[in-house]
Amino acid sequence: xxxxxxxxxxxxxxxxxxxxxxxxxxxxxxxxxxxxxxxxxxxxxxxxxxxxxxxxxxxxxxxxxxxxxxxxxxxxxxxxxxxxxxxxxxxxxxxxxxxxxxxxxxxxxxxxxxxxxxxxxxxxxxxxxxxxxxxxxxxxxxxxxxxxxxxxxxxxxxx
Length: 159
What we know:
The chain is 35% helix and 25% strand. The chain is an alpha+beta fold and 159 residues long. Helix 1 (12-26) crosses helix 3. The termini are far apart.
């Protein structure tokens, strides 16, 4: 049975391990190294998760199969210059062996419900270029590209 529920303090260690797994999985992808250095949760991950749990403008969820945590999601709200509220998905991750059975969908359903309850005008999420599975996942929930970030590396090639 797949489900998503709000996380609590007892989940922090498990979520932190999943955060580290997510960063390790995404770092080698195109754009992943810069994402990991700029956007991804930095250590100490446990402290960031505890702060998010304590902040009313954040939602921290765990995704489970038969009572075992196999994924997590974190989102926050952002006040726009015109006064509207935007929901921002910071993290959605499900262990590779647990994908395709509905855990990610349960997490996204809860995030959409959370953002709607708070009166958000929309929900944003970031996907690395070339990560077609993640892009398709978000598109199933009606999220579509609204901006593209371009980048040119100025560092000499390694090796």
